[in-house]
Structures are given as C-alpha cells and as structure tokens.
Amino acid sequence: MASSDTCFHCALPNPKGNHKSDYFTVEIDGVRHRVCCPGCKAVAELIRDSGMSNYYSMRDAPQPGAGKPPEEQAEWLVFNTDNMLNAFADIDQSVAEATIYAGGMYCSACSWLIETSLCKIPGVLSVDVNPMTHRVRVRWSHRLIGLGDILANLANLGYRPQPLTADDSTRPEIAEQRTALKRLLVASLGMMQVMMFAVGLYAGDFSGIDEDMQHFLRLVSFFVTTPVVFYAGKPFFISAWRGLVTRMPGMDLPVSVAVGAAYAASVYATFSRGPSVWFDSVAMFVFFLTLGRYLEMRARHRSIDRGAALSQLLPNTTTLIVDETRTVVPVAQLAKGDIVLIRAGDPIPADGFIVAGKTSVDESMLTGEAAPQPRSTGELLSAGSVNLDSQIELRVDATGGDTTLGAISRMSERARFARPAFVMLADRIASYVVVALLLVATLVAAYWYLAAPERAFVITLSVLVVTCPCALALATPAAFATAGSRFSQLQLLVTNGDAIEVLSRATHIVFDKTGTLTSGQPALESVVVCDEDYEQEYCLRVAAALEQASSHPIANAFRSDQTLPVVTDSTVHIAAGVSGTVDGQLWRIGKADFAFASDDQSVSNGVYLGTNGRCIARFNISDPVRPDAHATLNSLRSMGITLSLASGDHEQSVTAVANSLGITDFRFDCSPEDKLKTIEKLQARGERVVMVGDGINDAPVLAGADASIAPAHGALLAQTSADVIMLGESLHPLVTALTMSRKTLRIVRQNLVWAVVYNVTALPLAVAGFVPPWLAAIGMSASSLIVVLNSLRLNRFK
Amino acid sequence: MTALMPLLAAAFGAGLLGSAHCLGMCGGISGLFAAGATVASIKTQLPLAIAYNVGRVISYALLGVTVALIGSTAVSAIPDLAGPVRLAGGVLIIVVGLQVAFGWRLLTPVEKIGATIWNRLVPHAKGLIPANSVSKATGLGLIWGWLPCGLVYSVLLLAATTADAISGGLVMVAFGLGTMPAMIATGLSASGIAAFMSRNRLGAGLLIVLLGVATLAMPLTNMLENTEHIHAEEKP
C-alpha cells in the first residue's frame, strides 16, 4: 500500500504536516488512504464510485516476494549480478538504462500501472512504456537497486519481464528520432512565440508602434529565434557543409544560405535599429523544414521499424527444461533439440515444434496475420511470435539467424541499405537544380542591387526560400519510404527497392507451379503396388526413407513418424529423384524414367519406386491449387497482365493446373535453364517479366527476370533471393504488390509534377519581388508538406 | 492585442509545462477509457482522447470568460485598478512558474471550494464511464474541466486580470491547448513526453517565470516612463 508520505492516487509527495487543512483522505474498499490534494481526492472518489476500485488493487504492487514461491523470486535475483547488468543495460556512471519486454501487457492501463509502480521504487529515475511493442524502458541508479529487483517488481505486477539487449541496429534510429522530436519541439514552440511577437510588430507597422516597444519585441524575437536556428536548424547547416565538401550540393545549401543570411541580417537590424527584421520568416522556415523532415523520417523509420522490431522480438532469457528441472538460461545458449518452457504471454525464443501443450499464437509480426493462430503438439512455432493462451513446451529446431525471424530481419536489413536507383537519380537531379538556383539567386541579387539596392536583400532571400527544391528532393524518397512500410503491413517484404518501379511497369508474369500456384504441400493420394512380391506398407517405408534426403516439396508427402529403415549412400538426382540402398538393395524413387528407365509416356504422372529397372510401386501425389489462385489470376488479367506457367513438373499435372486456372501459355518438364530461356525470350519481345516462384532450385531464374516475387514461409524464407517476398499462405498479395507499385509510381509522378510546377510558378514571382520572405517560407513549406502528405496517402492503400 | 500575446504565451506555457502534475492525477483517466475496449489501439483511442480534451478546454474557456467578466466589472467599477491588475497578471505568471518549478500548492484552499462544485457534477460523470464513445468522452471532458486543480485556478486568476471576456476565454483556451500534448499522451500512453516534462520540471517552471518577467517588463517600463514624465514636468 502507498505510504502516508505519498499520495494514494498520484504518488506525488503529500503536503507535510498533519494539520487538518493539509489532510485529504479517500476511502477505498473500506480502507482510508491519504491523498495529496482535493483533485486527487475527487478523481479517486469518482473511480471508486464508478465501481472501478479494482483499478487500485490491480495497480498496487505487493512487496517483492509476497505470495510468490521463493524459487520464482530467486529467478530474478540472477539479474542482480554485474555481468547481467553489463549485458542488458547501458551504464553511464551511476545511471543504468535498460529495455525490458513485458509479456502480458495489452492496454494503455497496463502501461500506466507499470509506470506508476516502477517509479515508486527508490532508485528508479524514469520509466517509459510503449504498450504497442510491449517495451518498458527504465533508467535507474544501479548502485541503489539491481536489474533483478526491477524485473521482480514487474513479475509481481503479473507481467512476464524479459530484459532485452540493446540491439545496435535499432539504437541509432531511436536516438535520431528523439533528437528530431526535440528539434521539432524547439522549432514549433519558438515559431509560435516569434509569430505572436511578429503579429505585434506587423500591427505596429500599420497602426504605429512605440519605438522602445518595437525594440523590445525584436529583442525577444531574437532570443527565441536563436535556439530555433542553431539547435533546430543545425542539421541543415551540417548537411549543407557536407554537400559543399563533397561537391554534391543538396537542397540544404540554399536553405542554410537563406536561414543564415536572414538571421544575420535580422540580428544586425535588431541591434542597429534597422528598418525590418525577418525572425518570423526564419523561425517559420526552420519549423516547416523540420516538420517535413520529421514526417519523412517517420515514414522511413516505420518501414525499417519492422526489421528493428523483429530483432527486438526475441527474449534474452528462457526457461530450459532438463530432466524436469527448470533453469533460466540466455537464449543465445539454446541449441537444436533443447526443450524450453514458454509461458502464456511470452515471445517464442527459437523456431521449434510443440512437444507438450496446446495454445494459440500471435504471428502478426511475421506474417501480418492479426488473428491468433491455434497451434498444438507437433506444430511448428516461429521465433518472435507470441504465445497467447497457455503454457507450452517446445523442442528447439533452429536458433538465432537460422530462424524465420532471422531471415526476415536479414532481408529487411538488406532492403534498408539499398537505395533504389530511382531515388538516387532524383537526388542527382536535385543537386543540379540547387546549383542552378544558387546561380539564379546571385543574378537576382546583382540585378536588384543595381535597380533598387534597398530591396535586393529581401528579394534574394525570398527567391532562395521560395525555390528551395525540398519538394523535388522529397518527392521520390517520401513515396518510396511510405510504400515500403505499407508493403510490409500488407504481408509483402520488399528486399530490393528497385523492384517497386519494375513491378509498376510489369506486363507479363511467369509462374512456377509447385509451391506457387499450388500450396506446395503435396499429399499422398493413393499407392498402387505393381509388383506382388512387395507389401504396400514396405514400399511406403522405403519411399519415406529415401525421400528423407530430398528437399523437393514432394518429399513432404512421404514424411512419416515411424522408425524408418536405414538408407546408405543415398544420392539426390536433380530434376529426377533419389537413389539409395535399403536392406542391401539399390532403390530409385522419382520420375518414371529415372525409377525404372521407362520410355512409356502414359505413365509419367506420379512418383515411382523402382529397383533393378523394374517398377515396384506408383504413388499418386496431389498438390491442390491454392484456394485464392483463381481469383488472383483473374485480377491480374484484368490489370492487363499476360500470364504464363513454366514448371519442372510433368505434362499431365502442369496441364491440369493450367487448364483449371485458364492459363493458355504453359511449359512443362522445364529445367531451370528452360525457364530462364522462356523469360529471356519474353524480354526480347519487349515484355517486362515478373517471375513468381519459390526459387528454391531456380535462383538464376528469379535473378534473370526483371523482378521476382516468392511466396515463402518457414524454412523457405531463408533460402529465397526474390525481390519481393509474400509472407503467409495467400496468393492475393501478388495483386496488391502490383497495384501498390503502380500507385506508388503514380504518387511519385504527382509529387514530381507538383514540385516542378510549384518551383516554375514561384520563381518568376519571387524574382519580380512580389513575394515577401514570410510568404516564401509558407509557400516552400506548403509545397513540401503537400509532397509528404501526398506520399502518406499510400499508407491508406488497401 | 500586443498586451494579450505574452499572457496567451504564458498560459500556454503553464499548460504545456505544468501538466506533468496532471499526469499523475489524471493518468487514471486512460484506464477509464480503456475499460471500454479489451485491446486499446491508437485508432480507437485517439478520437476519444481528442474528444475528451476538447470537452475539457470548452469548460476552461467558459470558466475563463466568467472570471474575466468578474474582472472587467471590478476594473470598470474602480478606475485605477487597470494598471495594478496588469502588473498582477505578470506577477501571477511568475507565481505559476514557481509553483510548477517547485511543486508548490498555494491554492489548496481554493481547490477545496472548487471541490464543492465538482461534487455537484460528479453524479453526471458516472453515467459517462466507461467513456467509449466520442460523445461520452466529450461529456466527461466537459465535467473534468471543473476538477479542483490549483494550476487551473492560477491561470484563471491570470484570465481574470485581462478584464475582458474574450481575452479571458482565449487565455484559458491557450492554457487548455498547452495541456493537450501531455493529456493526449497519457490517453495514448506515449509516455515519452510525460517523462521528459517531469524530468525538466524545474527548467519548465523557470521558463514560465521568465515569461512573467517579460510580461512585467512592459507595463513597468511604461510606468517608469510615466513617472519620468511627471518628474520632467515638475522640473521647470
């Protein structure tokens, strides 16, 4: 319970002394608590009278250790050692800072609860809670309390805390975002203040103003504008300087020249009591520029947030079960085959199969699928998904970088560093425009200096500000960044930024069959034994044993839980089958001509088991077409895209699939070379070809197409090299990818047209002296804000 | 107009920088919102948070208009009051700043009086919880504006010194707008801003004090100049 020194409701100190007038109390559940002020009393009574008193009981942490078995307390004390502190916290002298994942946190009330109760612990300096990512960031004095105490406290609140290591890949963005926010805050507050003073000054210009009053307002404006220019505007100066040094002048150069000159001239005018100051224009210009940059940065970060968030999804410790004893170990120590215990609300530490228990998991971070997925014994769980319902035991199958999560993170990383050629082109153009504008500004200055020297400065300033090519420079990256983040929300992982542009102009799609148009999870339909010497059961076991060596999707149809006979010298023959010795006999399984050297075309369907050139058994395998394949292909056709099918499979099954989906142009028995040739032939005809396939055995085919899209999940993810990856089981994201790309390019074009039209219109007006600096600042900001906002429309794309 | 600007700025600043205290007290309100939905998302929470805050600011504006009317009656009744009231406004801003900086509660007695008004409104509030619709959230905000709160009362005094109904209302609106970032942030639990502000309470308070000094500077220099004029006239 809250002590009588602090307010029961808000936890701030109560007024000192027991004088009756300082004493406010509130009765909750029959207990009288002291609160600090009539306000808290009023709110507390309202909460009580609305029947929500349990808010307090939920929020009040019992003393550490109360009501919990000692071993669970001891679990957290492990973290009080210096080793753990160094591993999980950033230490700056006596202050430590760590990020903790709080499993089981679901609403904003939780974050309030965590904040309030952690702040009550002596030694805790600050607590930030993000309910969306379930992250708690704590700063505390590590000489007073240990990390373990904080974790124990969170655990006592009913959450499952996991300290997270500071991931290097995510830190710079967080820091960048924080400083950007601070700069924006300074710029906006400063701008508002300066505008207020400016209103006074302008009013004074019209109706007359006392000179001292005017001087006072200018002085105050000077004080407020200074931090706006040098703190909020710092990035522009730095980037302008960098541009000069590298001889690649960016849009920040004219910005810096304008801000610097206007500020300097205003300061001079202030102290020499000159005719006019431009503090309002300066502050406004810096504010709008900062706002535009901030929005653009948010869009950019959101697209990589996913990657960053992914690497943060993993807990750092987990409970390992060895011979029924449970120990907390770092996740990094897990190895394939370990059994771990995962409580409800905890993230899954590694890819693995459930060995005990039944639950539902949240895989939204991996597949975008928001609904909880039921999972029970034997099913695969992916690292980074969250166990929702109940405690399960998991046998670890893959850890770290080998997990699905690891693969997605790597690919997000890849996409993040690649700057699409399109964006680079825009940058280069902007750079030429900048040089041209600086020349124009110089000419304008020279002309007006001769024609009307007293107006020369103001007009040059307006020209510099109004023609700032920010809109031009932001047009492409803002749209691409927003598209990137929207793509990932739509279950599409773009690993190559150039793909967006190519997809938008695609004319032809070549599909692979197995695992693409079909689910890629072939099932054994029936078995026909051709040789009466062998039992069906035995044939199946031999087949299963042989297929263990194969990574072909068809091998999955033979997977068996039983103990299989031992295979020696098994060999995988690409596009043919598998051979191996079982019980002293050489067996072959695969295509008919491979299994028993048959020339008979009529028996080419199915998988054959043969030995000594004789057919022993035929397995009929069916691989059903994906449920949404029909609708997806129809949508693609209606978008004017021609469809082809090129498969390594047999004539019969390929024809069946092609016919059922209405594809007239199809090829079967294709080797990877055949597929590549098909694509090259189309390209020679001037088609822009997109290859859709899982790319497991045909990476060169994917690389040969203009763009490639792979449906991938689970283990396949790690192996694919496609430009765009469709997460999840559905084909429909394909349509989304194409329409979204088209939409993105349309937005880019709109942005560019707008930027050019704006600059071309504004320039002559400014040169002629019709645009005062404040209007120039508004015009410039409006033009680039329009570009950013137009790009953000992509976020609403469905 | 020019005289009003610093007051608006000060009221805004008091709201913005002083709202760290409100977070402790009103943070629970986010719990009240969340009670309506099982999983709170930004999309559902933001309109509610905004509606609630708009309601609150409307109440503040009403209060501001009321006290400014009282102020204007007083000023028109006693002609010599106008100058001193101006000064009082500047002093008040400084006091508000000091309250924010050092966590003083000078107006606790007034809060108790306010509590009696609040008690009449509370029965209406109960029907609005959980505030899971925009209209309910607005209603709750309207009532919440009357919550006994020293900071609100301090700024109300400031509004009264404008002695003009519209200016008084504007001062309170500026104050309400200032409190919005923090209050919306609690509603959404984007607690970064809140933490930032409570860490920098001292600096925030002193900033408000500075604003107060700046506000005082003008009427003071005017007064000094006036006295100089008088002296100059006396000389010959």
Describe the structure.
By secondary structure, chain A is of the alpha+beta class. Among the domains of chain A are: 1-56, no CATH class; 70-166, Alpha-Beta Plaits, CATH 3.30.70.100; 315-348 and 351-372 and 380-398, Calcium-transporting ATPase, cytoplasmic transduction domain A; 492-513 and 629-738, Rossmann fold; 523-622, Calcium-transporting ATPase, cytoplasmic domain N (3-Layer(aba) Sandwich), CATH 3.40.1110.10. In chain A, 49% of the residues lie in helices and 19% in strands. In chain A, the strands form six sheets. Chain A has a seven-stranded mixed β-sheet with strand order 17-29-28-27-18-25-26, with helices on both faces. In chain A, strands 9-8-10-16-11-14 form a six-stranded antiparallel β-sheet, with no helix packed on it. A six-stranded antiparallel β-sheet of chain A has the order 19-24-23-22-21-20. In chain A, helix 10 (252-271) packs antiparallel against helix 15 (453-466) and helix 16 (470-489) packs antiparallel against helix 26 (733-767). Chain A is flat, with a radius of gyration of 34 Å. With 236 residues, chain B is mainly α. Chain B has one domain. Chain B is 83% helix and 0% strand. Chain B has helices spanning 4-26, 28-34, 42-77, 82-102, 108-126, 134-144, 150-162, 165-188, 192-199, 201-234. In chain B, helix 1 (4-26) runs antiparallel to helix 7 and helix 4 runs antiparallel to helix 7 (150-162). The longest helix of chain B has 36 residues, at 42-77. The radius of gyration of chain B is 20 Å and the shape is globular. Chain B starts with a helix and ends with a helix. Mean pLDDT of chain B is 72; it is low at 34-40, 189-194 and 232-236. At the A-B interface, helix 1, helix 5, strand 5, helix 7 and helix 8 of A face helix 1, helix 2, helix 5, helix 8 and helix 9 of B.
